[in-house]
Fold:
Amino acid sequence: MIDGHTRVLGVLGCPVEHTKSPAIHNSLAKEMGFNLAYVPFRVEREHLQDAVKGAYGLNILGLNVTVPHKSEVIKGLVDIDPLAKQIGAVNTLVRVEGGFKGYNTDMPGLLRAMKDDGVTIEGEKVVILGAGGVARAVAMMLAKNGATCIKMYNRTLEKAQAIAKEINEVEGKSIVEAYAMTELSALPKEQKYLVIQTTNLGMSPEIEGAPVEDGAFYDMVKVGYDLIFNPLETKFMALCKAHGARAYNGLKMLVYQGIIAYELWNEVTVSEELAHKVYDSILVNFANN
Ligand code: NAP
Structure:
């Protein structure tokens, strides 16, 4: 019930019409009995800074930020969390004195999702497919959580090299190795890998795509984690499973990044029981659409 006490939350993006975030946050608010309404805001690039200022003026409690604004939004903030600063991307704005403080809940969200799925990072050799904005953050997260070696493969080798150089400097050791996607066939075969798929290949509507087709590669996959969540089973995931590996999509990451944002806005802890309930309802929502 929207009334005079309702606080507004939302997501800034362009396009924003396909967002699942309202379903996540409105069901959290309902379950926890909070008087909140979460809405999508389609914000064009040239209006981003005005939108952030306007949101503060309108007493909006908090915002998510999605494509293409995650880096550009930073210049309009009064403060930034160290993790978001290091990643260089903000997906959550929390209202503070004089403006908004930026956080990145994508990586903590992925970490919580992987823990929930029983996927270990500590001591693992990891392959990352892709070297975009998310891949860079994933590599940082893996380096900080005990991965022993991160092999990053990308169509554009220079992008993987730039990420490897940056993270190896920050970590003070050579933990990320950069390769061209065409070099995957030379991946050492003596062991199995945790593989994180961060390219756009296989995302709806082009669901026939996968970054690798070679069955010999999939024989080396122990766990395949695709950050795509539409479709719920990508071709990459199907190939992992066909070669005996466990495979997961990015829907749980999406739900947990939302839950962590919700915890920041409302200064609450969302129980794992409620997190699973929200995840199940989003899964049903997906299956019905
Ligand atoms: P991005 O910066 O645009 O990077 C895209 C990556 O995909 C690059 O490595 C790019 O390679 C590669 N790629 C794109 N088209 C390709 C093609 N035809 N052949 C080979 N490689 C290709 O995107 P991003 O922001 O990192 O996002 C990556 C993925 O993460 C998206 O699918 C997005 O949906 C997903 N994501 C999921 C969540 C979640 O909550 N689950 C959150 C954020 C993002 P080049 O460098 O060679 O162009």
